[in-house]
Amino acid sequence: MSGSELAARVREAQAVDREAFDRRAAEEAERLKAEVTDGTFDNTEAIVGLELELYAVGARSGSLKRVPRGLLDLIGFEKELGLHNAEMQTSPQPLNEHGLVAQEQELKANLAPALKRTARDEIRLVSDGMWTVPPTGETATDYLCDSVEQDGVRIATNMSDAARYHTMANTDYPTGMRVEAPHVSLSADTVMPESLITSIQPHYQIPHAPDLPEYFRYALRVAGPLLALGVNAPFFPPDLYDDADDEAIVDDAWLENRIIVFEDVLNPAADDAPDKVRFPPDFDSVEEAIDDVVADETIVPMDVEAGQRFDDAFVHFRHKHGSYWRWIRPVFDGPTEPQANARIEFRPLPGQPTVRDAVSFQAVFAGLLTTLTSIEHPVRAMDWETARENFYAASREGLAADLTWITSDGEETTDLDHIYGELFEAARQGLETQGLSTDAARRYVRPLRERADRRITPARWKHDHVAAAVDQNVPLAEAIWGMQSAYVDHQEETLLEGTFVDWL
């Protein structure tokens, strides 16, 4: 798409009547509530799915690489924000032994030929939390901040050509378009800095849609402990750091900078508008969850036409939900009425070193929701503020964070072994409840249990690698790029068939 065509689409979005759009979304939300009450969004069983984001690097250089759009279409992956991004989604499957196997096999079945095909163009797809090596001959600052003005519209040079992405920089909503992290200050004219980060997103479909608030409450309370296990983004591209000692940068690094990047880029820099990326509230009813989406400020209203999907009856509500950026969020959709579902989208987790690591998080999350809700685990009573504090502490310190948990006996604990002992046991029980054998359930739990037992995460592995190099007087940039090269090399051997603990 040419720049003038893209600018024209952005101007079309700018011309949409915001109030009329919001009225239609609110009207559709009322119809959605009625459908939920009537049981349309119920499932006969729990169902799981997964989104997997990747970025591309040069197969030889290891530096960030733009993926030709035709190649992305050829390998069957979807566009994401940056030209270097690719995304795939699994087909929803029942939460049972066969469904989880199908999830893992579908990821491998799509990734294996994609890796083979992209290799012919000297491209390697990487599963990670944040890229650190910019394209050859460019700085990360230039790549993230490069933009042009086309017919009065600001367009990011390295962003995919979806009009909604570019419209975010051309609306009245005061999107921050900046990053402020330890020793990092970046300011851009578009939301392109968000393309630093990649994630996995497990989905859990609720069997009985009106029960969503109960499952959601538990999802918020396991968010901190699961994020602490999954952290994988301790370092930025080196040229983004301010003038500080290498040792200070290493010592002060947060272990999951993906959290601060997403919040800083999309939230207002000042207090003149509510944050859209944030830890969500508890809900007392499914209607309240729907109302929260309706009340969220619309950034990019668009003229959206209903197609032939069942959920196109809620097309404006669904579009509004697209910028309802919560770290855990409720979702209501379905291409047909029998496939209509209410689900929880768990968004805190960064991309993981291997497919099995990603599926382990998916399975453990699903097992936890199954068990905790069925036994009415006492952690339900944990203060929301404590759950939120756990989440942000985990993003900064990973497994070294001071996490609080309410045990099955109703006692508060900060003992990490006790916390994860209960979590993994509950996850195993939940998976066995869904028909998995004990051995199969343990297979999914084991990669994460070993992280907790060894007190090691992908972020800690990266941090230790860079810290050791800096201690040997290796310049920070070389230390980070050396770590990234080692990460990609390890992943090349284990992405489809191993786990992160195989690296240790």
Automatic annotation (TrEMBL):
Pfam families: GCS2. One of its GO terms (molecular function) is ligase activity, forming carbon-nitrogen bonds. SUPFAM superfamilies: Glutamine synthetase/guanido kinase. Transmembrane segments: none annotated. This is Glutamate--cysteine ligase. It comes from Halosimplex rubrum.
